[in-house]
Request: fold
Amino acid sequence: MTDSLQRTPLYDLNLELGAKMVPFAGFEMPIQFPAGLMTEHLHTREKAGLFDVSHMGQIRIAAKSGDVKDAAAALETLVPADFVGLAAGRQRYGLLTNEKGGILDDLMVANMGKDLLVVVNAGCKVQDADRIEKALSDRCVVTRQFDRALMALQGPAAEAALAPLCPAVKDMRFMDVIETELATAAGPVPVTVSRSGYTGEDGFEIGCAGADADKVARAILAQPDVLPIGLGARDSLRLEAGLCLYGNDIDVTTTPVEASLGWAIQKARREGGVREGGYPGADVVLKQTRDGVERKRVGLVADGRAPVRAGAKLFADAEGQNEIGVVTSGAFGPSVKAPVAMGYVTPDYAAVDTPVFAELRGKYVPLHVRAMPFVAPGFKR
Amino acid sequence: MTTYYTKSHEWIRVDGDQGTVGITAHASEELGELVFVEAKDEGTEVAAGDAAAVVESVKAASDIYAPVAGTLAGFNDALSDDPTLVGKDPEGEGWIFRMTVANPDDLKGLLTAEQYKSL
Reply:
């Protein structure tokens, strides 16, 4: 490990729990714990898992006017989502686009009543904060909270594990967000809690001061059925849930339409909507929505047992003559019990149940385009 | 029968010029539970250090190298149904492929069990 890698507030606890640490997005992060990736994945789907995601960036955006709607309207100039229509106490997924409609990052935006809480990817957080600050500083105060901790408690037992520490979570629905207190051995500490995650399961994302992170994590881990989970299982869980990994499945070369993320652009921002366009690359995105695209992100499940990994070329035929796309994420899905992947294909091959072939060690293995998520979502609506 | 080891964590158990190859318990632990194992076709000629098989965990694929030159002589078909056999018994039931060793003298260049343990 080099000295330049950063550590999260849960670094010492991760080591104490036996984590195998790897460099990720400039941080030393736990890739797996002694239970191992397979067990961690299945445990999260059956019980509950706690993930340290403190490497991600938390940013607060407050309007100088004091009205959160003004902060929401300002952020809409950078993100094609309806934040003005986002009620207090609710959270929504969004995409930061560039002038060509390419995706600079994906993020979660919560209306905290007085301001917005934005959570962005670790590898993009400085660049994102710079972009937001530059564009919004005349109207808003943008505060980087990169020293705060963030952890995700995911799985069907998440509510039962968190409610004894934080009773308010029982009343939350999927994508609700609150500010509350969480009981720890050293007394209650202030936290932000959203009912959301990156696994396709019910669960919560809990933000707190870096100094409180160890206490919060220990309180949650002391609950029945909770295991610490590493980034390895996080990746296989999100892939089975059909969720994009920034840098793999989406990046500056892919647009929201190509990435099949048109659902993240609400009606108000679409053609004919009350606040149509008005974000970087809107002309490209509106045109693509109207006229179609050259490639679409799809889900893929292999017919056989061999995992198909990111970078594998996709073909229409078993002889590798007609190349139609590429795999962007691929792994064995422990819950699906088959190799699962996502990738981009030409629109003619994007329909569900279309057979395609992936190049694998000189052979062409059969897959089918399948609907995502690959596992049934466990959200509490 | 004698078992030799490689620095890349394969073992080869040999009887005359017939070898059986797998991965060590240490390698198996590092890889975690396997979800897929595949060897190159029987009859494939390999040089020492050529990728002769692949083992895959949820997250990653790892090549398994031929410890010495020779000809592949069969795959452990039980691994097609249950790749976790490698983790359960890496140096026994979890063997991966058989090979005919081209030159048994090449085995002298490999590690003994003692030498492998001291790595």
